[in-house]
Amino acid sequence: MSITEDQARKVAHLARIAVDEDALPALARELDSILQFMDQLNEVDVEGIEPMTGVTPMRLKRREDVVSSGGMADRILSNAPDAREGFFAVPKVVE
């Protein structure tokens, strides 16, 4: 499958990427090489191979789900650039 300049232009438009007309041939070649690599990957036999999320098997660290009041508002607000009366202070954005 070969990507044409018109198809590369359409992909750039759909991705909301501004591409100069003189850069379209290079973009088309790059997209074409990506699709060729994907075709190569489709040729690999993965029958019987379990999907994995990482290269080493790991279990997620879990903690007990306990409801608490938090009790650390002062610590959290100490990181804020501006805090007033126990709340984050932000600039007014609506008139």
- How many helices? The count is 3
First-residue to last-residue Cα separation = 55 Å
For the largest beta-sheet, the strand count, sense and barrel status come to: 2 strands, antiparallel
SSE topology string:
HHHEE
For the biggest β-sheet, the strand order reads 1-2
Tell me, rounded to a whole number, the average pLDDT: 90
Overall SS class: mainly alpha
What integer value in Å does the Rg equal?
26 Å
Poorly predicted regions are none
Give the strand content: under 5%
Structure description:
- With 95 residues, this protein is mainly α.
- It has a domain at 5-42.
- It is built from three helices and two strands.
- The chain has helices spanning 5-14, 24-42, 73-77, and strands at 83-84, 87-88.
- A hairpin with a 2-residue loop joins strand 1 and strand 2 (87-88).
- It starts with a helix and ends in a 7-residue tail after the last strand.
- It is an enzyme of class 6 (ligase).
- It catalyses: L-aspartyl-tRNA(Asn) + L-glutamine + ATP + H2O = L-asparaginyl-tRNA(Asn) + L-glutamate + ADP + phosphate + 2 H(+); L-glutamyl-tRNA(Gln) + L-glutamine + ATP + H2O = L-glutaminyl-tRNA(Gln) + L-glutamate + ADP + phosphate + H(+).
- Heterotrimer of A, B and C subunits.
- Belongs to the GatC family.
